[in-house]
Amino acid sequence: MGIRTIGVVGSGAMGTGIAHIMAQYGYNVILSDVNNDHLERALASIGNVLDSKIRKGKWTEDKKTELLGQIKITIDLNEMTAVDLIIEAITENMDAKIQLFSSLEKICRAETIFATNTSTMSITKMASALSQPERMVGLHFFNPAPVMKLVEIIRGYYTSDEIIVALKELVRSIGKESIEVKKDTPGFVVNRLMLTQFREALLVLEEGIASVEDIDKAMTLGLNHPMGPFTLMDFTGNDIAFDTLKYMHTELAQPNWAPPIVLKRIVNAGRIGKKVQKGWFNYK
To answer: Annotated catalytic sites, by residue?
Structure first.
């Protein structure tokens, strides 16, 4: 099951990063979005990252030109007819994902693998959009995708062994490590562990046990984490943490997943993190 051409749908931070790392390792990439401006910004963002490497002597102009030449941008999903692998990186909305995969199955070849970069949602439910659900798999990169070493490969209920083997080889080929998530469960492995840490940190704050700053210091100096939970929530988005905890609470029907009020309060205040320059900390 050879993979040479990869379609990435969604040109936000994750889709852009995935397109970047795939092109960097010689794969042909077709990056699609509904908006040309978003696609142009994605290419510019990759170019800016490469320019920074060039200034540091870690990249060359020729290699930049070659990498960007590996990426084709389009607003037309019909361009995905020849891809070997689709990686979906659109908004975390189940209905939107199901609709997208239903459309793509009509366009893509019978051998195409359908992967989603979702961080929490059901692979099996997305596979309901396909007449061949064994072609659906989770392929969860972490932000920023060109830098982070881990990729979760998640089995849906029907995912074939052949696809798991092919994606493990793909992950190795781009210099990353994979773990196989054997059961399709909300949050998979990393987010299930990370969200538990987020929620406990929020409760420690809410109960007045320690400040935001001291909780982060406890995790960085006491457990040697590279950043504390509040810094990490700001980096990934407090709104995303809130929505993901709500999703976990709904799916698992366990009270220990309910998002604490202190998180809802900061989201309602518009302090959703670094993307707006304010969250648990100020970034201006």
So the answer is: 119, 140, 152, 191
